[in-house]
Amino acid sequence: MSSKSANGHAINNIQSSPPTSPRNRQNCRRRLRRRGSFAMLHRRHFLLLVSVLYFTGLISCVGPLFSLLQYSGFGAGAVYRSHEIFQKLWTDIEADNSSSIELSSVWIYKRKLKEQRPCSFGTTASTKDSPGTNLYLIVDANGGLNQQRSSICNSVVIAGLLNATLLIPRLEFHNVWRDSSEFGDIYDEDHFMSTLKDYIKVVKELPVELMERYDSNISNIQNLRVQAWAPPRYYLEEVYPVLFKQRVVRISPFANRLSMHLPSHLQFLRCFSNYEALKFSLAISALAKKLVKRMIERSSNSGGKYISVHLRFEEDMVAFSCCIYDGGQVEKSEMDVVREMGWGKKFKQKYRVIAPGLNRKNGKCPMTPVEVGMMLRGMGFAKDTPIYLASGKIYQADRYLAPLRKMFPLLQTKDTLATKDELAPFEGYSSRLAAVDYLVCLFSEVFVTTQGGNFPHFLIGHRRYLFNGHAKTIKPDKIKLVTLLQNTSTSWMDFKDQMGSMLAESDRKGIMVPRVKKSTRKGSIYSNPLPECRCLWESKRATNRSNSYLMVDR
After folding, report:
1. SS3 for 259?
2. CA distance 400 to 80
3. DSSP state letters, 320-373
4. How many angstroms separate the CA atoms of 230 and 194, rounded?
5. Inter-axis angle of helices 454-466 and 145-162, to 10 degrees?
6. Of 17, 181, 200, 312, which is least surrounded by CB within 10 A?
C-alpha cells in the first residue's frame, strides 16, 4: 500500500469515529472536576504538613529557651533551697523522739527465685575445651574503677568466644580520674589467671616473637574500633577473621562494646569473672578489712550493723552536672575552672544547652550531704546510727558536711577510720581508694546511692548476689525529693511521711528485676545478676563458701 493510500485510510478511520455524545462530555467534565478536587486536597495536605513541620521546628528551637529559664526558678524543685529548709526544720528534727527504725529490721521483702532447671557445677559452662591458643586478644579498659571492671569481665567473654589467649587487660589513664594504676595494683593478677585457667588462658606478656613483629610496641598492633553493645555474632564475623590472620588484635576503647544479652554459657563467664576471678589486691583488701572491722566496732549499739552512703558531691561531679547550689558567684567561677581543666571546651560548644533548673527538677543533680541527712532522719534512722561515707574529696567539705555531722555524729570516712600511714600508699590513686570504699559499702546493712553511675551499678548487683537477691539499697526518688526540699511550707511530719514511703519503695524494688530488652544498664547482669548468675550463686551456697576476698568476724 502506498503512503498516500495509507494516510487516506487513517483519515477515513478518524472521520468514521462516532462523535462525542453530550453524556460523555458531561462525564469528562465530572472527571476533570474530581481531579481538580483531588489536587486541591493534596495541596491542603501538603500545606498542613508544612505547617506541622514549621511549628515542630519552632518548638524545638524555643524548647532550649524554656530550659534555660528553668534555673531562674520556674517550676517546683528547680531551685536549691535544701539548706534553708534544714535550718527551718532543725528544731523539729532535733526534738523528734518518735520510735526509730532498727537496722536489723529495715528490709521486709524477701526474694523468691523461681524454680529453674538443675545446675551442673563444674566446667560445663566453658566456651571451649582446651584453653590456650596462638591467638591473642588485647583490650584497653577505659573509664573509672567499675567501668574498667565491666570491660575486664567482657574481655574474658570475648577471649572465650574467640578461643583466644587474653593479655592482662590494660587500664587506660584518664585526665579526670588521673589514676595511673595498672591491673596488678587493683586486682590480684595471679588469682585472676589461675581462677580462669579452665575457661581461658591469661598471660602477662605477649610472646617475644610476636612483639618483635610490632617493634616491641603494643601501640603498633592494629586497633579495631568495635561498635557499642556488639553481639557475639559481630565478634565472630568481624573480629575473628582479623585475629586469625594477624594472630593478635587490640580493641580500644572497650567500654560497653559487648551486648548485655548473651547466651547462658557466655553470661556464666561474666558472672564467674565478676564474682570469682576479680579479687582486689592484697593491699586494698587488707585496708578494707581493717575499716570494716572498725566500723563494726563503732556500731555496737546496732549489733555491728551500719549504713554506707555513696556521696557524689565531689568537685568534678558537681562541675560535670552543671547544677547550681548556694555558693553564688564563687561557686560558678570555681566550677567553670574545673570544667575547663577536666573537659576542655566541651561545655562551651554552641549546640550545648546548660539548664541547671531542669537538671534538678529531673533528679539529675548530685545530692548534698544535708539532703542525705534529712532523708535518712526522715526515714526513721536515729541520731546514733553509724554511717560510713564513701566519697572522694567533697566540694567545700567543711561547709557542706557540717549539717550531716550534726544529724549523724557517728559519721565516719576513710580519713577518720584509717591512719595517715595506712592511707599514704593510696594517695593520688582514685581507683584504689574507690576500691576500698566499694568493699566497706559491700558489707554494710544498708547502702544508700545518691547519684547513679558505675559504682552503685556494680555494688547493687554484688549485694544482690551476696544477700539472696535483695540489694538492701536505698535509691531516693530525687524528683520527689527536690520538690519537697524547695517547699518552704513543708512540715517535718509531712516530710517524714514521704520519706517513709520512699524507704518502703526501695525495699520493694530491692528484690525486683527490671524487664528490659535493650542492651542498657537497666538490663545489666552486673546490677541484676539473678537469675543469670544463679548456678554460680547456688554452687557457692552448696559448698558453703562465702566471699573469699574479705572475711570479717562480726
Report:
1. coil
2. 13
3. HHT---S-HHHHHHHHHHHHHHHHTTGGG-TT----HHHHHHTT-SPPPHHHHH
4. 28
5. 70
6. 17
Distances (CA, A) of 78 to 283, 368, 484: 44, 15, 11
Tell me how far CA of residue 310 lies from CA of 110, 352, 408, 467, in angstroms.
24, 29, 15, 19
Judged by phi (left if over 0) then psi (alpha if -120 to 50, else beta), residue 487 lies in beta
- Rounded CA separation 375/409 (Å): 16
Give dist(CA 496, CA 502) in Å, integer.
Answer: 10
Grid coordinates in use for 253? 576503647
The values of phi and psi at residue 31, to 5°, are -65, -40
DSSP H/E element including 42: helix 22-70
Q: Decide the pairing of beta strands 170-171 and 136-141.
A: parallel
Report the alpha-carbon distance of residue 361 to residue 397 in Å, rounded.
24
CA distance 278 to 273: 6
CA distance 137 to 418: 40
- Segments in the chain below pLDDT 70: 1-74, 112-132, 174-177, 513-523, 541-554
What's the CA gap between 517 and 275, in Å, rounded? 24
For residue 417, give Cα distances in angstroms to 68, 290, 334.
43, 9, 30
AA letter at 434: A
Q: Which helix (H) or strand (E) holds 171?
A: strand 170-171
Give the Cα separation of 207 and 136 in Å (integer). Answer: 10
Q: Which three cell numbers stand for residue 81?
A: 533551697
Return d(Cα 493, Cα 179) in angstroms, integer: 45
**Closest by Cα among 367, 390, 434 to 146:** 434
238-268: per-residue pLDDT in tens?
999 999 999 999 999 998 999 999 999 999 9
Kindly state the cell numbers that stand for 181. 594504676
Long-range CB pairs of 223-230, under 8 A, 24+ apart, other chains included: 223/250, 223/251, 223/252, 224/249, 224/250, 224/251, 226/251, 226/254, 226/257, 227/257, 228/256, 228/257, 229/256, 229/257, 229/258, 229/259, 229/260, 229/519, 230/257, 230/258, 230/259
Provide the 8-state DSSP code for 274.
I
Per the rule left: phi > 0, alpha: psi between -120 and 50, beta: everything else, 163 is left
Assess contact for 255 and 226: CB atoms under 8 A. no
Beta strand residue intervals within 432-530, DSSP E: 446-449, 473-474
Closest among 87, 106, 83 to 382, alpha carbons compared = 106
The residues pairing with 533 across neighbouring beta strands, listed in sequence order, are none
Q: What is the DSSP letter of 79?
A: S
What kind and span of H or E run contains 407? helix 397-407
Give, for 139, the enclosing helix (H) or strand (E): strand 136-141
How far is residue 346's CA from residue 339's CA, in Å, rounded to a whole number?
A: 8
Other C-beta atoms closer than 10 Å to the C-beta of 233 total: 9
- The DSSP call for residue 176 is T
